[in-house]
Amino acid sequence: MILEITGIIAAICMLLVMPLDVYLAHTKLEIAESYFEKSIFINDTKNMLRNQHFKGAPVRLMAIAAVLLMPQMFYWRKLVLPEEVKSVPGNLKLWMVAPLLFTLFTLAILVIAWLGGAYEL
């Protein structure tokens, strides 16, 4: 019973973060992309998703958050430049990364609640 309630609360939290993602995609995405002008990864993602719904804004938002969360991996593969990532202000980094981490955290809770209910832990 506790797992079902936990899963419902996590699902509600995940639904509440969706409007924040839409807000960020419409207000902060272009600002964040302006810091990655020479980035192969961000520019290719933008060009690849330009014909999708909302111009692929939610996916582009998550791509920038991934670059900000794991910059060493992208440096190593030469997909972004270190000075581009360092030039992003801390406030904007928080706006990009926090919704992704919150979404992944609630998704993990949903999976644990589902597995717990399926195997009756």
UniProtKB/TrEMBL annotation:
KW Transmembrane (keyword) present: yes
Record key words, sorted: Membrane, Transmembrane, Transmembrane helix
TM stretches of this protein: 6-25, 57-76, 96-119
Lineage top rank: taxon: Bacteria
Protein name as annotated: Uncharacterized protein
Organism of provenance: Pseudomonas brenneri
